[in-house]
Amino acid sequence: MSHALHLVLNISLSLFGLGFIGWLFWRSLKNSEDPGRLIFKWLLTVAVVWFELAVAVPAFGRGGLDAVFGLGLTGALSMVINVIWRNAILDLITQPLTSIFDGGSEPPEPKPAYSMALARRKSNHPLEAIVAIREQLAKFPADFEGFLLLANIQTEDMNDLPGAENTLNHFCDSPNAPDRQVVAALTQLADWHLKKAADVDSARRALQKIAERFPETEFALHAEQRLAHLGETEKILLEHHDRQPIAVPEGVQNIGLLDSTEFLRPKEIEPGKLAAVYVKHLEQHPHDADVREKLAVIYARDFKRLDLATLELEQLINETRHTPKQIAGWLNQLANFQIELGADVATATATLQKIVEDFPDQPVAEIAQRRLARLRQEYAVKKETPKVKLGVYEQNIGLKHGPPHQQ
Q1: Diameter of the chain by CA atoms?
Q2: I need a labelling partner for 78 at 20 to 30 A (CA). Which of 105, 217, 348, 384 fits?
Q3: Cβ contact 351:338 at 8 Å
């Protein structure tokens, strides 16, 4: 190796060593709780090492009593170093173990603090609470908890529903807002429109935003089901705000002396008329699972039409956005209808087997397996049901709505 190359190598190693020592010093200084004390310890260490190299090491080379002196001096200087750095050395050794319990030296993740805002709100100072929340949102602009708390104060304490709507819409318009939090915000907004302002149209717009923003998802399905029942909610709200005096008819005299009180029972709606109402409703709201299930029950129990009941339940079963528990419930209900209305064992078996195949790792599969084991017993105890004449009801009622229902 040439002299020049050897010199370059030595200089490079020296610079690397000095750089590493400088980095170590800077890192320690940055993480230290008392930088001034750390600098003093470093300076004292440098002085001790210099004294060791300048006095103790040469004494070893001279031998005799000088060597004994150098040995004693080295021991004394080692004790000084130990006093200076013993706590740091102990921390270095024990830190991996203590980090398991106290989280180590990593600083905690910064989080917004709303305790002051909550205290201001509790003491009936909503404006001060809003200011405190906005200060936190300036530091954490994507924090859903802060936006929801701010909107809550605007609605409940300030009676400022338009302001709360702007707050939640601002959060929902953020491109990085998580889907579930956007849905929660819009759902809460719809609830406030109904509860605070009896504004069904605004609630409908909030729910429609969910359906439009997350099409073909579980969120959209739930929003569509709520939209289907907003008409009923509107009717209740109108009755509440526009109550008319109700004339109460005189009760039946001597009711206890009557031979029969059957005439006092409220008349039930004819199944055909109720089915027609459900069909019309489903034409406008095809994702209303509750009404579709009720329609299937009417077809099976009142009309004894297994084919029509099956069509309705299959629409629910084939909707993948429903939960496994819901789908398994409808498959079990379909199996009940098949048993009651005379389908063979193979048909009911295939229906229940679908639960096992579609949800093998779900608890509903185990329940279906147990029912499959006793399915023949269910057929054995099934009672004969008399045939019911359909009368004047239209045979194909229910086949007029929804794309799957083609005549």
Answers
A1: 133
A2: 105
A3: yes
CB 395 within 8 A of CB 407: no
CATH node for 115-239: 1.25.40.10
Contact call for residues 297 and 194 (beta carbons, < 8 A): no
> CA-to-CA distance for 285 and 206, rounded, in angstroms?
17
Q: What is the pLDDT of residue 78?
A: 76
- The predicted pLDDT at position 406 comes to 40
Topology match between the domains 115-239 and 272-381: yes
CA dist 328 → 286, 305, 314, 325, 364 (Å): 20, 21, 12, 5, 7
Q: Which residues of 334-348 are buried (b: 16+ CB within 10 A; e: fewer)?
A: bbebbbebebeeeeb
DSSP 327-361: HHHHHHHHHHHHHHTT--HHHHHHHHHHHHHH-TT
Return the pLDDT at 405: 43
pLDDT recorded at residue 240: 46
Q: Within 10 A of 63 (CB to CB), how many other CB atoms are there?
A: 10
Q: Is the dihedral of CA 127, 131, 136, 141 positive or negative?
A: positive
Query: Which long-range contacts link 402-405 to residues 24+ away (Cβ below 8 Å)?
Result: 402/282, 402/283, 402/286, 402/315, 404/311, 404/314, 404/315, 405/311
Residue 33 phi, psi (nearest 5): -80, -20
Per CATH, the number for 272-381 is: 1.25.40.10
Domain spans of the chain, in order of start: 8-101, 115-239, 272-381
pLDDT of residue 56: 66
CA 73 to chain centre: 68
401 DSSP assignment: S
Query: What stretches in the chain show pLDDT beneath 70?
Result: 1-34, 38, 51-53, 55-57, 59-63, 65-68, 70, 85-86, 88-108, 232-268, 383-407
